[in-house]
Design brief:
The structure holds two protein chains of two kinds.
Chain A lengths: L1 H9 L1 H34 L16 H11 L10 H17 L18 H8 L2 H12 L3 H32 L4 H7 L15 H16 L11 H4 L9 H26 L14 H23 L7 H30 L2
Chain B lengths: L4 H6 L1 E5 L6 E5 L1 E5 L11 E7 L2 E8 L7 H5 L9 H5 L6 H16 L5 H30 L3 H21 L8 E2 L2 E2 L7 H24 L2 H7 L7 H7 L4 H5 L6 H4 L25 H25 L18 E9 L2 E9 L7 E5 L1 H7 L1 H5 L4 H11 L3 H5 L1
Antiparallel strand pairs in B: 1-2, 3-4, 4-5, 6-7, 8-9, 9-10
Helix pairs in contact in B: 4-5, 5-6, 5-12, 5-15, 6-7, 7-12, 12-15
Classes of the chains: A mainly alpha, B alpha+beta.
Chain lengths: 342, 393
């Protein structure tokens, strides 16, 4: 028995699979918490209480109950749908957002894969989500879903440009795509964080990144692909039960992924804001997750405050505002770096 | 935005693809918005002909909520039994519906109701206007994607409903206004509660303006969208906030006063095109917000002047109007609600014809939406503020 286990651990494929599942330990509890949290936040912003019963204390078990309900639901695939694509799509969407976790540095001691092009990898792998969304919308064979899918494809593709450009500004300062190196470059006190460096250039880059990332993850005011008051549910109109839960899960996973990138590149990642105080691998993870949570809170805050843009206005914001600004920014940062003699 | 209706008639139109050198046949897509769609405010089906996201044509299909209101009225046992039925037309502003009907029948019977009844009716009708506009504004925000204003509006609406509930026991469908009187007199603390509501509500309008009306995104979504010029509005026969949004100051409470509206001092807000063109969605929205302020003014005056008396002293023993007909039009929150009642001298109405404001206003939707985007259709439909119970009756 012991030897069999030992052999299994010698098996590379098995170990890699096991390692790949580690971020799930974070993603699933996080999604369960974030959904509950969003409900509570929206409720308190709207003079309500939100879930209060399930589980006792402030309805903490509400999302767990919801997941249990969704798992029990009948698996409905519309007759006219393209069965294969319809089934694959949610997993592809989830894969896209989940794969990003491989390169996210949770603390100095834990990162799934410390690759020297970490940032590059995260930006590109999260584009996979778009394929999944397009697939889901097309396979549903529903005109509203198709609209949602086309909108999200247009949106994500256009907003990836300002996202990448604003992140490049940081890369130019550090000189590497390695996320751990970027973290280490911001060690010390919070004024070493990149958001306060080369002021105000990197601060603006952070702002552009945050706005564009809202569009990347379909959050208000850019939740146009899902726009329930226009497109019913957008690409996930026809999804129910566990497939819907997976789409939902990947949305929240994606929310944290973009927040994590914002925290890593602009807010010091796992660095403690107070130098050596409360630093170390455990506290690093604590700071990292807390910073991510702050961004998630801002995302939720915006969602329950702002109306939604129209699809053409969204394109105007993307192409005529964010992209030119990020180009100017890169230019400015480049000159600064050159002048400082790096 | 150059798409014309003739394109629809042709069905297909050739599209030249640059670089390909030949033309492809492209078709517009027909897509159903509703009857189960979150933004059609009930069971309305809009048949959209779209070219990408641009709406080429739009055909509203109604009738999913048809309940034979007019035919039912002819088969009631008496005139009074129609009142609970009119509640169910514009169910978010039931008091306003009742007011028009009871005035019509009283006119046929030549009854003069006591002053106290008139005052309470006006207060209730204005309460109804506030409730209806709160729902219109709240759901409008939701159509544009802002959830929170809706909940705030529902919270404020609750205060009005509490007062009405204390008066007549019902919160939505009241059967409160009887022919010649009221079902219940108001409770002794009614005046205090109403005054308290007015002081509570005025800052809430400002809060709503800060949160939604002057929000940049909200203005972007509604200004210059769905413009209805005044002449087109008149030609379509639209009324209420939709007409006033186009800049015409036409309100039956001023222009053809009924009940005791001539005794109060209030303004008629009209669209001025502050954020865009006169007659756009933002103007129609803003007219509603301003009307709530004016309704509060009317309620404040009416509560101060509320005379004593018996609200049931003028109830007729039997309701048998002389043979003849009457048309009464009143200004409900949605617009001009007209009742054409014909009597053959018996105890039941021979005919009750309703001129519903929502139905007429809805007819202007295609004129406003051609060339707009799908998201705009949602915004335009919301700015008309229809209630399907009244459109279909």
């Amino acid at each position: 028995m012991k030897e069999a286990l030992f052999d299994l651990l010698q098996n590379e494929l098995f170990v890699y699979t096991l390692m790949a599942l580690v971020p799930l330990l974070f993603v699933i509890p996080f999604a369960l918490f974030a959904v509950w949290w969003e409900r509570k936040i929206s409720a308190h912003m709207q003079d309500r209480l939100g879930p209060m019963r399930t589980g006792g204390w402030h309805g903490w078990a509400q999302t767990i109950a919801d997941i249990l309900k969704l798992i029990q639901k009948e698996d409905i695939i519309p007759t006219a749908a393209d069965r294969r694509l319809f089934i694959i799509a949610p997993y592809l969407v989830f894969a896209g957002s989940y794969a990003a976790y491989a390169a996210i540095p949770f603390s100095a001691a834990y990162i799934g894969s410390e690759i020297n092009i970490g940032l590059f990898y995260v930006i590109s792998i999260s584009s996979l989500v778009v394929v999944g969304l397009l697939m889901a919308g097309w396979a549903s064979n529903n005109k509203w879903s198709l609209f949602g899918a086309l909108r999200s494809a247009a949106q994500i593709v256009s907003y990836e440009i300002p996202v990448a450009l604003s992140l490049l500004a940081v890369v130019m300062v550090v000189g590497t795509f390695d996320l751990q190196a970027i973290n280490q470059a911001q060690s010390g006190y919070f004024w070493n964080w990149f958001v306060f460096q080369k002021f105000p250039l990197l601060f603006l880059a952070g702002l552009i990144y945050f706005v564009a990332s809202l569009a990347e993850v379909n959050r208000t005011p850019f939740d146009i692909p899902e726009a329930e008051s226009e497109l019913v549910g957008g690409y996930h109109t026809e999804y129910g039960g566990m497939r819907f839960a997976i789409l939902f899960l990947s949305e929240y996973a994606n929310m944290f992924a973009v927040s994590a990138i914002a925290a890593t590149l602009f807010f010091g990642g796992w660095n403690s804001p107070f130098g050596e105080f409360l630093s170390g691998p455990f506290w690093g993870a604590f700071w990292f997750v807390s910073k991510g949570m702050v961004f998630i809170f801002v995302q939720m805050w915006l969602r329950w405050t702002l109306p939604r843009l129209r699809v053409d206005q969204l394109m105007v914001v993307g192409w005529k505002v964010l992209i030119p600004f990020s180009f100017v920014l890169i230019f400015g940062v480049g000159i600064w770096v050159l002048a400082a003699g790096h | 935005m150059d798409v014309t209706v003739t394109d629809v008639d042709a069905g297909r139109r050739p599209v030249t693809v640059p670089g390909l050198g030949r033309s492809l046949r492209a078709e517009e897509m027909v897509i159903n918005m509703g009857p189960q769609h979150p933004s059609t405010h009930g069971v309305l089906r809009l048949e959209l002909v779209v070219d990408g996201e641009i709406v080429v044509d739009i055909v509203p299909h109604i009738g999913y909520l048809h309940r034979c209101f007019e035919k039912h009225c002819e088969h009631m046992t008496n005139y009074q039994q129609v009142v609970p039925y009119v509640d169910r037309m514009d169910y978010v502003a039931a008091m306003s519906n009742e007011l028009g009907y009871v005035i019509a029948v009283e006119k046929m019977l030549k009854i003069r109701v006591p002053d106290r009844v008139e005052y309470i009716r006006v207060i209730m009708a204005e309460f109804s206007r506030i409730v209806s506009h709160l729902i219109a504004i709240g759901t409008y925000g939701m159509d544009i994607g802002a959830f929170t204003p809706f909940l705030y509006c529902m919270r404020d609406r609750e205060h009005v409903l509490d007062i009405i509930e204390e008066t007549c026991g019902a919160r939505l469908l009241y059967n409160y206004m009887w022919i010649g009187g009221l079902s219940h007199d108001v409770k002794p603390n009614f005046q205090d509660k109403t005054r308290a509501f007015c002081t509570y509500f005025k800052p809430k309008i400002k809060e709503l303006n800060d949160l939604l009306s002057y929000n940049k995104i909200f203005i972007e979504r509604t200004a210059n969208v769905g413009v209805l010029p005044a002449d087109v509005a008149v030609n379509y026969g639209v009324s209420g906030p939709v007409l006033r949004g186009s800049g015409l100051k036409f309100d039956l409470r001023k222009n053809d006063p009924y009940s005791i509206y001539d005794r109060f001092d209030f303004d008629i807000p009209a669209g001025k095109g502050l954020k865009g063109t006169v007659g756009d969605c933002w103007d129609r929205y803003m007219v509603r917000v301003c009307e709530m302020e004016q309704s509060v003014r009317i309620i404040e005056q009416a509560v101060e002047q509320l005379p004593a008396g018996d609200v049931q002293s003028a109830l007729p023993k039997r309701i048998r109007p002389e043979a003849g007909d009457v048309y009464v039009r009143t200004e409900t929150p949605k617009g001009e609600l007209g009742y054409y009642v014909v009597s053959d001298g018996s105890a039941t109405p021979f005919r009750v014809k309703v001129r519903p404001p929502c139905f007429v206003n809805l007819a202007a939707l295609p004129a406003m939406s051609r060339g707009a985007m799908i998201s705009d259709v949602v915004a335009i439909l919301g700015s008309i503020d229809i209630v399907l119970g009244e459109v279909d009756r």
